[in-house]
Amino acid sequence: MKDKVLALLKKQEAYISGEEMSQSLGVTRAAVWKAIKKLQGEGYIIESSTKKGYKLVEKPNVITPAELAPMLCGYTLGQVIKYYEVVDSTNEKAKALAREGASEGTLVIADQQSAGKGRLGRNWNSPAGTGIWMSLILKPEILPQYASQLTLVAGLCMCEAIREVTGLDATIKWPNDIVVNGKKVCGILTEMSAEMERINYIVLGIGVNVNHKAFPEELPFATSLALEGKQDYERASLIKAFLERFEKDYKHYKVDPHLTAILSRYEAHCITLGKTVKIISGNESFTAEAKEITIDGNLIVKTETGEEKLIHSGEVSV
Length: 318
Ligand code: BTN
What we know:
Layout: H1 2-11, H2 18-25, H3 29-41, E1 45-49, E2 53-58, H4 65-71, E3 81-87, H5 90-99, E4 107-113, E5 132-138, H6 147-166, E6 171-173, E7 177-180, E8 183-194, E9 199-208, H7 225-229, H8 235-255, H9 263-269, E10 276-281, E11 284-293, E12 299-303, E13 308-311
Parallel strand pairs: 3-4
Antiparallel strand pairs: 1-2, 4-5, 5-9, 6-7, 7-8, 8-9, 10-11, 11-12, 12-13
Helix pairs in contact: 1-3, 2-3, 6-8
This protein binds biotin.
């Protein structure tokens, strides 16, 4: 009921009477009033006038299904949204849902994560009300060996979405960290369940630091879009901008899971290319110049002795 009342308020620029809403929704005026109270409790500023009715004046920066679903209608991804105010990790939740048979494109999203997971077993700082903590359940019919490329596709789409929504100079640090002014604003953790020749599901977990005003001391290389852009951004708009791009690129990827079609876009935003990078792979550590990204998403580097090496994403930190 609350979502339906919200939809009516959004449609109407001027006031809409309680009577009109109750008739159009086929419920009592008391039910409309109750829904209005609930929305106000969630942070929606709704003006009410005994003569004219109700008017939505301001909406909170939330990522609830009531906000997201209307923005995502017409897409394939995000048609099922599982929203949690607090969850341990959206990746963990998404894996559990995928095991229970959740459909391709299910979007698991939380306002806060109590045990957000980063790559290489690290924690991911995920406070309430500030970021985007989301995981998409995907079931591409491709060989498991091509799954890591998907992370690069997603990184590119989020980089472009951030550029569009904020105007900030977001760049990609290979393979998929998104960096603004040298500091990280977004990370991606892809997890997969597969057999030798077949993927059961992929969980694509994306974390974006959107409106954080500060970070814990132990994260000196993290920043947020708000800290860099000196203003808050609407999280729902960023999710929409990402899904709009990712939906298209994912469609291509399912047919040809190489980066061929997006490589020039990826290279245009990748700050790793041409740089001397430190590669830590297993017990080995060396510096080399980043030369090229292959259509499989690997990095070709040239070592100080002139030897070319192929670095696999997911295996190293650069
Ligand atoms: C990284 O270390 O760069 C990857 C961070 C990925 C964080 C996101 S937040 C949503 C999803 N759920 C998690 O627990 N992790 C990912």
